[in-house]
Amino acid sequence: MIDVRRAAGRFTTSTEGITSRHSFSFGAHYDPGNVGLAVLVAHNEDVLAPGHGYDTHPHTDLEIVTWVLEGTLQHRDSRGHAGVLRRGVVQRLSAGSGVLHSERNDGGTGGRTRFVQMWLRPDESGLEPSYAQQEVAPDRLVPLVSGIPALDAAVRLHTSGAALHVARLAPGESVGLPDAPRLHLFVARGSVRLESVGRLEEGDAVRLGGDASAGGPSVTGSGAAEVLVWQLP
After folding, report:
1. φ and ψ at residue 52, rounded to 5 degrees
2. Is 40 helix (H, G, I), strand (E, B) or coil?
């Protein structure tokens, strides 16, 4: 299975100071044929103007992974965790039995904040809520979070068989994608060429897999590019 989803086809939610583009059904946007991929149930790209963001709101039984592409994002939650995320810092919030949190562009850089936030179903419901953030140095293909015991990543995930990788590619540089039953590739910056698919632009995504392993196709930077790749059960 190869399913290409172009940036222009994503659902978009716009409110004052916030634009959010959704890869799957989200909020008021519902498509029964597009509610997620395996355990990945949300994949949102958000842009926040300075001083704007999401006020305190609840989550339960989700693994929430955030990766900032531009600017800074201030996080606070009801468990006493607080942090400022910037480019190169990955965050995982395990909502478990319930947590309240807020996310805002604190205006520290004077510009917009752009980030990708992804939600997954955990293996178990009712876990103790927890929080982790870690600075990483992306290279050719680096695991950011992982629920695969054999795969060392910056942050552990409470979802078996799932892992998020990031690659920053120079023009003409290639990497092979992981072998997995399913893959979700998102072009976060620039443009790339994906083996057997062709050119992908910023905001495009591809879903790969099915009954057999996705087989690890290669992706090549058409210019300077950054891709996020979910390895899924």
Report:
1. -115, 165
2. strand
Q: Tell me which DSSP letter residue 179 carries.
A: P
Q: Cα 82 vs. chain centroid, distance in angstroms?
A: 20
Strands 192-194 and 198-200: antiparallel
Strand duo 155-156 + 142-146: pairing: parallel
Range of the domain at 20: 2-232
Q: What is the pLDDT of residues 24-44, one digit of tens each?
A: 999 999 999 999 999 999 999
Those residues whose C-beta lies under 8 Å from the C-beta of residue 15, and which sit 6 or more positions away, are none
User: Residue 117 — φ and ψ, nearest 5°?
Assistant: -125, 135
Please indicate, yes or no, whether the overall pTM of this predicted structure exceeds 0.85.
Answer: yes
Question: Three-class SS of residue 225?
Answer: strand
Residue whose token pair is 């698919």 = 197
Count structural domains, the chain. Answer: 1
Picking from 146, 149, 148, 147, the residue whose alpha carbon sits closest to that of residue 166 is: 146
CATH code, domain with 190:
2.60.120.10
